[in-house]
Amino acid sequence: MLSKKKINKIKLLNNNKKFRLDKFIELALFASNGYYLRNRPIGKKFDFVTSPEISQMFGEIIGVYLVYHWKEKINSKFNLIELGPGNGTLFKDIERTARILPNFFENADVNLIEINKELKEIQKKNLNYFRQKKIRWSKALNFKSKMPSIIYSNEFFDCFPVRQFLNENNHWFERYVKFNEKESRYYSINKRVISKKILDYLSKYKKQKIYEVSYSRNKYFEQICKYLKRNRGICILIDYGYNKKIKNFTLQAIYNHKKTSIFENIGQQDISSHVNFNELIEIAKQNKLKINEFVSQRDFLIKYGILERKKKLLTKNLNLNKKLLDEEVDRLINVDRMGNLFKCLVVSNL
Asked: Which of the four, 39, 88, 168, 331, has the lowest number of CB atoms within 10 Å?
């Protein structure tokens, strides 16, 4: 459960009355003792395992993609920015792959965006061999640089808080959270939407029974798009999400690799939602950016050579465990595993 300090902080919102779902999520994840600020979430012993932790081949494919686009479209000094680097595994694999073109990192101003102090120390330890290249760590993106940028992320945009709306008999309701004093627990209620601004926004979804939106996610991505529009560059994001109408809300909590209620283990578990890629694509188009890629993780990895990379690894090193490599690749590209659930969106102004 939340500490007493955090419970009091949440209860004070809105004069101790019901408050919005996204406010609850924001505090559970990002308050001073929230999940993302004080926990180490990534790894087999922790709450979830990401693609870079599954196989080095994932990062190698991303690395080849980045190097190619830098050489062909930028070929000068640039910002290399990773959003939410986790344990530093993805960056490590990209750096190793990019050695095929030494000029890539010689021209890169590397900035890792990380708010978790423990993960930052883990990244520094894991990337110590590279720190002579002067990696910078920041808590937030700096949009002041005028150099072209390559921005990339894996499982970053799913962590933004969401709001949930339910359409019943042509009336919209929004999910709110209340606190039960006697039982010392949280529960959700539906509150009718009366704001004209929100109702006007929801009118385009009147044929849907539910609508889930992260305004903070959309705003963050829009800032990136505007930045790329001004200074040139490319953004590659890989996350689990959808581009069709959803039948059920996607908000979920994960604790020790198992799904739980968002009201359990508060401040100690991951809370995330599927990314609405349609909204991100629309934002990119509104900012006149190119949609270079929008495909499943399976299609992206196969298109850019993961099967050939696996074959080459086995040919070069006969001692490698073929069964293990097959399992790693299958987990990444199988449509019944991560292959279709995860999507890859690449937008650019190059």
From this structure: 168
